Amino acid sequence: MENKRNEVIEKSKDLKEGEAASSGLQAIEGDQSSDLQSSPVVPITMAVATRIRQRIENLVVSREAWEMGAYARSNELLYSLIAECYTLYRELTDKSSSTTKDKRRGLDDYISLKAMVFKDDTPLTGKIIRCVFAGTDRRRMSTYHTVLRVAVAQDWQPNEFASNIAKFGGVQEISLSKASGAMTAKQKAEAAKVRVLSQVLATASSDALAKLASTDGIGSKAVAVMSQEADGSFTIHAIVHSDTAVNAALAAYFSSHKEELAALDRQVSQEANVATRDELTAAAAQAVANAQLAKTNNKHE
Question: What percent of the chain has pLDDT over 90?
Answer without folding.
Answer: 22
